[in-house]
């Protein structure tokens, strides 16, 4: 569990790279500069940790591309103390970025293997979100409403239960589409009955699946 000067140097280069791709939120850039992404990667990919790419993390899933993590975080305008629900813990990298931004994070993962691995890793690193093993389609109503919701898997549609758990004035970012390509959608809850949805480009995520996987 080492974070060396070399890693820090590579991370600063990554920050400059995603800045060049249009990320301007200084809190997002600071968080990307702080979180040691190499510790979230499988050993065979560790040398590529500061490349702006997605990589396999086991159980058929991927750690998101840093630009995508930054883009989703920027769209949400994360404020310190925001209550954030994350659907798809995966490697835990996005979770750590949200925590570095000062958010209170509630994170759900449906793959038992990844849930156990990422929970242990984040805790060892001193990150303390609330972890849940379950189906993110249902959200986590007992801890809601949330100021922000982030979905890190591609969904066929906007899940109504997640909209319900969003606070008035809250924002949800979710890639919506089929298994090949999704449109990054920002859902803002205007009042109890109405949302406003805006679209922010095309991305490619692993699919959001129903139920859990033992
Ligand atoms: N941000 C994560 C992305 C992981 S990929 C990272 O950077 O590591 C998306 C994750 O969503 C996968 O781990 C997948 O198992 C999970 N997932 C898919 N459908 C889900 C659901 N219904 N509920 C919870 N997690 C889900």
The fold-level CATH name of the domain at 58-203 is Rossmann fold
Strand order of the largest sheet: 5-4-3-6-7-8-9
Radius of gyration: 16 Å
The CATH architecture name of the domain at 58-203 reads 3-Layer(aba) Sandwich
Question: Secondary-structure element order, as H and E?
Answer: HHEEHEHEHEEHEEE
pLDDT average, as an integer? 96
Number of helices: 6
Main sheet, how many strands, which sense, barrel? 7 strands, mixed
In whole angstroms, the N-to-C terminal distance is: 28 Å
Enumerate the distinct ligands: S-adenosyl-L-homocysteine
Summary keywords:
214 residues; alpha/beta; two-stranded antiparallel sheet; 6 helices
Structure description:
This protein has 214 residues and is of the alpha/beta class. It has a domain of 146 residues: Vaccinia Virus protein VP39 (Rossmann fold). Helix content is 29%, strand content 27%. The protein has 6 helices and 9 strands. The strands form 2 sheets. A 7-stranded mixed sheet has the order 5-4-3-6-7-8-9. It has a two-stranded antiparallel ribbon with strand order 1-2. It starts with a helix and ends in an 11-residue tail after the last strand. The site of S-adenosyl-L-homocysteine has 23 residues, from strand 2, helix 4 and strand 4.
Short description:
The chain is α/β, with parallel strands linked by helices and 214 residues long. The protein has helices spanning 5-20, 26-34, 66-76, 93-100, 112-125, 160-164, and strands at 55-58, 61-63, 83-87, 104-109, 130-133, 146-151, 166-177, 182-189, 195-203. It is 29% helix and 27% strand.
């Amino acid at each position: 569990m080492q974070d060396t000067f070399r890693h820090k140097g590579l991370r600063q280069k990554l920050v400059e790279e995603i800045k060049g791709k249009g990320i301007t939120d200084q809190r997002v850039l600071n968080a990307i500069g702080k979180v040691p992404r190499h510790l979230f990667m499988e050993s065979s990919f560790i040398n590529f940790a500061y490349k702006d790419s997605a990589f396999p993390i086991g159980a058929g899933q991927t750690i998101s591309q840093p630009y995508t993590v930054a883009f989703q975080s920027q769209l949400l305008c994360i404020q310190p103390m925001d209550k954030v629900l994350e659907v798809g813990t995966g490697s835990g990298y996005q979770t750590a970025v949200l925590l570095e931004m000062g958010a209170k994070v509630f994170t759900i993962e449906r793959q038992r293997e990844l849930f156990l691995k990422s929970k242990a890793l984040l805790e060892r690193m001193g990150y303390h979100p609330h972890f849940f093993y379950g189906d993110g389609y249902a959200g986590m109503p007992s801890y809601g409403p949330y100021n922000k919701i982030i979905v890190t898997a591609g969904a066929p549609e906007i899940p109504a239960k997640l909209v319900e758990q969003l606070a008035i004035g809250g924002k949800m970012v979710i890639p919506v589409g089929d298994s090949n390509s999704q449109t990054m959608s920002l859902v803002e809850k205007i009042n109890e009955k109405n949302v406003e949805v805006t679209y922010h480009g095309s991305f490619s995520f692993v699919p959001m699946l129903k139920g859990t996987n033992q």
